[in-house]
Amino acid sequence: MMPNDSSPPEQRRQAAEAARQQAEGTRLDAEHERCVIEQQRAVAEAARIEAEQCRRQAEEARELRDQHREALETPRQEREHLRQAGETARHAGEEARVAADTARQATMDAVQAAAETLQVMLQHMKVVEEMRRTLRDILVMNKLDSN
Length: 147
Hints:
The chain is mainly α. It is rod-shaped and about 205 Å long. The chain is built from one helix and no strands. Helix content is 94%, strand content 0%.
């Protein structure tokens, strides 16, 4: 409450002092609010910095994870190539075995055919030998008849 200009000077001085104290209290309250706001800003900045550090750490962890994944992928691909090469070699081995079996069978057939040919030739030779004997016998008989 502000006294009018007709109030006694002591009363005006007291009113002015009360107004000054109220203004000082308001100023102190404003200063306190400013300090609280500054603290909140500092806390917010610290939280922002910490969040940025966490983001960087997460990014580094992601990069490491990607590198690890790539490092694991290389041996997996090599194993796959080796598996395919092994499969190709197994298939080629199987084809070679089949070809060897076919060749063995062809060789056995050729040996059998050669044996049969030799058997026929032996029979022919026996027939020829028999014919010679018969001719000799005929010649001997003819000589005897002519005598």
